[in-house]
Specification:
Distance between the termini: 71 Å
Helix content: 40-55%
Radius of gyration: 35 Å
Shape: flat
Number of strands: 19
Largest sheet: 7 strands, mixed
Length: about 600
């Protein structure tokens, strides 16, 4: 703790020397590795803000890692943006945006060569190639690519080498033979432009050409060739009707939805081309700046690839877009006409909502994969725990007027139920009395004395369903055992968190994600305790019912229930089987079947 205080004081001393002008700051860990790069209009004020006031979890996470901070001064905010972008690409810091695919959908690539190749890939290479997609439905991609190859005789070979004579594809009419010099660059470029038109959904001109070709072939009585072209035209029309989302607006548009939890961000890009929803891309990343900075950095990375398939407009919920807009138009080839806008019409807002919902769903999947770790990080900070509470165990008591008192023990790992480690205890120390404090003491004592004896791992946090009294009872047991396990109580009434030795409870806001984890643990302890209590009561009622039969005492009742498993199975059993199981005469067994038959009929009435 003392070392951490000294580290923060040292960093604050460094910041005092920072200039009050634009620039870039570089945060490093104790291994001198750059973990975050940011830009600022005012370097000193921006960096100082990390160490003042209450901060969210992502900022606290970043600050804990910082050992030193460097800075580079620039003349303007625009120069700072350029420098920041270059340094991020060079150093790839952990806490800056890194476009990891939430799901890697395939795309179609047109290579940047003299005679480009068109093929399917999942890898994006920044070499001025053009990419179309992504295609969530691989079947649509394959049909699209197959159609391009049917219509256009493009090169098939991976490496284009000069040949004296072309390969078999040329003789089949499926390649134009650039390897043998049988097509000029200009004519091949015409073919590639047609491929781009098909992939972009602009096929009206191509369809007219095909119709003319069909008529010419029909007039010259070449019906077989005309039928082949007709099939291509049908496939082209089918491909255009495959899309389920249409708005009849030909202008190309992207809609970028964003959602985040702590320092985990998810971005979803929905692409509309030629009035149809062409595809969706999802990206995830850790980030420790503000939401606005995260969006700016995402735009730099996503649209920072020269000569990609840029839309006319990109919709994003970002108030200050001018800096990024200037950068893209000045620095990125092909992005000169890209306009960053806020969705205003009902149509654009509807598609934007779809993008945001996709980002939310992708983030939820990521958080589930992480085991709700961001929420646990919040709890660690709120409760001032030394380690992340990855293993949480919870206790609750259930009884019926002092009878059938049971305790539940449930276990959560990484914020999710770990049901294989659930346990229950039949409380032995009360003798029919009602004392939740004593019951909690017994359950806690039995659980952790056993873990100590078996030398098993202890939990990171214990949750008791209750308030101060229950917490005090559990703490007394832990102290007697010599254990120092963090413990809290969560009361149902006001959802307040009670800590040992702390006068006032912690009141977290409704919806707080750390509180939601605790509530989930508490509710699961209650459910598990109640269900076990009900089983005990039902079992006792069953035994009582059998003991009402002459000649059947407690021992034979238990023996029958153990053998048959339930009263339902006993109802259907024959007298001979009951006789053999309970060790009684056939007359007594017959009496049991008659008794159960009468009881079943009375229950039905």
């Amino acid at each position: 703790m003392e070392r951490n205080k000294e580290r923060v004081e040292s960093l604050q001393n460094q910041i005092r020397d920072f200039p009050l002008q634009p620039g870039v700051y570089l945060m490093k860990d104790d291994h001198k590795k750059i973990i975050y790069i940011g830009k600022a209009v005012n370097l000193r004020n921006r960096v100082r803000s990390y160490f003042s006031g209450e901060k969210d979890i992502k900022t606290r996470t970043l600050v804990r890692q910082i050992d030193s901070i460097d800075h580079i001064v620039t003349k303007s905010e625009y120069e700072a943006l350029l420098l920041e972008n270059n340094l991020i690409k060079k150093w790839n810091p952990r806490y800056n945006i890194n476009l990891k695919d939430g799901k890697s959908y395939p795309v179609i690539r047109i290579t940047a060569e003299e005679f480009p190749r068109v093929f399917r890939t999942r890898a994006i290479v920044n070499d001025k190639s053009q990419y179309y997609g992504p295609y969530p439905d691989v079947k649509v991609l394959d049909e699209t690519l197959s159609l391009v190859k049917k219509v256009l005789p493009l090169r098939r070979c991976r490496n284009l080498k000069k040949r004296e004579s072309p390969c078999l594809y040329y003789h089949m009419g499926k390649c134009s033979g650039p390897c043998a010099g049988l097509i000029s660059k200009e004519d091949y470029r015409t073919l590639i432009n047609k491929a781009r038109a098909i992939l972009s959904g602009r096929t009206a001109g191509l369809e007219k050409e095909l119709m003319k070709e069909i008529r010419a072939l029909s007039e010259s009585l070449e019906y077989e060739k005309a039928a082949e072209i007709r099939d291509i035209l049908i496939a082209l029309e089918k491909l255009q009707t495959e899309q389920k989302v249409e708005d009849f607006e030909e202008e190309s548009r992207d809609y970028i939805g964003v959602d985040f939890s702590g320092n985990i961000y998810s971005f979803a890009v929905i692409q509309m081309r030629n009035g149809k929803l062409l595809g969706k891309e999802s990206f995830r990343s850790e980030y420790c700046g503000t939401e606005e900075e995260a969006i700016q950095e995402f735009l730099l990375l996503y649209y920072g690839i020269p000569d990609k398939d840029f839309p006319s407009r990109a919709f994003i919920s970002l108030k200050d877009r001018s800096l990024i807009q200037d950068y893209l138009r000045k620095e990125v080839g092909g992005a000169e006409s890209l306009s960053l806008e806020i969705p205003r019409s009902k149509r654009d807002q509807a598609v934007m909502n779809m993008a945001v919902e996709n980002a939310r769903m992708d983030l939820a999947r990521k958080l589930q994969d992480l085991g709700n770790l961001p929420a646990l990080e919040d709890l660690q900070n709120v409760l001032n725990l030394k380690k992340l509470p990855r293993r949480i165990e919870g206790f609750d008591i259930a009884h019926l007027d002092g009878h059938f008192t049971v305790a539940s023990l449930i276990s959560f790992k990484d914020g999710n139920p770990d049901r294989k480690n659930y346990r229950h205890y039949n409380i032995r120390s009360l003798d029919g009395g009602i004392d939740d404090f004593k019951a909690i003491s017994e359950a806690v004592a039995r659980r952790y004395s056993r873990l100590m004896n078996e030398k098993k791992e202890m939990p990171d946090l214990i949750l008791i369903d209750g308030g101060k009294g229950q917490v005090s009872s559990a703490v007394s047991v832990l102290e007697a055992l010599g254990l120092k396990i963090p413990l809290l109580g969560l009361a149902k009434r006001d959802e307040l968190i009670y800590l040992p030795g702390q006068k006032d409870p912690i009141d977290l806001p409704e919806g707080d994600r750390g509180l939601r984890v605790l509530q989930h643990v508490r509710d699961e302890t209650h459910r598990f305790a109640t269900s076990h209590n009900q089983k005990q009561r039902k079992k006792q009622l069953s035994l009582s019912s059998l003991e009402n039969i002459p000649g059947i005492g407690p021992a034979r009742s238990r023996k029958l229930l153990i053998h048959f498993g339930s009263m339902e199975n006993l109802y259907t059993a024959k007298a001979e089987e009951i006789s053999a199981t309970a060790g009684i005469s056939s007359d007594a067994a017959e009496m049991i079947t008659q008794y159960l038959s009468r009881k079943e009929k009375s229950e039905e009435q």
